[in-house]
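Write out the 3D structure for:
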Amino acid sequence: SSDSMLARAPQGIDNLTFQTSDIAAFSSDHQWDIVFSNAALHWLPDHERLIAQVAGHVAPGGLLAVQVPANHDHPSQTIAADLAQEEPFSAALGGFYRQSPVLLPEEYARLLFRLGFPDQLTRLNVYGHELDGPEHVIEWVKGTTLTDYEKRLSPKDYAAFIAEYSQRLLAVLGDDNPHFFPFKRILFIAQKPA
C-alpha cells in the first residue's frame, strides 16, 4: 500500500511485478506456488476469513508462509489500548482503540488444517531485542501500533497521548540499560497437498 516502497522495489526481474493493492480486497483466479506475508496481516481484521482467502491463492503442492507480530499482550500494546479508552482520548478517538486480530498459534494450526493444509509448521518465537534503554521501546512502538493513534488524533492530542503513554509504560518497564525487549511473532508454513 506504500507508493514510496513500490518506487524502491527492484525492476526488471523476470516474472516478478509489484503493485499497489489491498490484501483484504485482493482477488485473482490465479494460484501461486508460494504465497507469503511478512508483518502485514496483523493490520487486517477477521483472520479466519482472511487466512482462508489468502490460502485460496495457493496452488496444489504450493506453500503458504506467514509471519505476524504477536506482542499484543506486552505492556507497550496494552497500555496504549487502555489509555485510548480513557478520556479525553476516547472522545478524541471516537471510541477507537487498537485491538489485535492475531489468533493464538494453535488456532492458526487448526484453521490451516480445516483449510486443507495438514502438512504444516506453526510456532511462536520470541525475538529478543537489546535496546539502549526502555525509552527506546516507545520509539519502536511509535513506528507501529501508535501510528493508529497518531493518524486519528490532532497533533496536540497525540503529544498528550504520547506523554501519558510514556509515563505509564516507563513505570512498568523499569530503568534497565540495556533494556531487553522480548517481541513475539507467530510463523507458519503450510503445504497444500498436490
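The mean pLDDT is 94.
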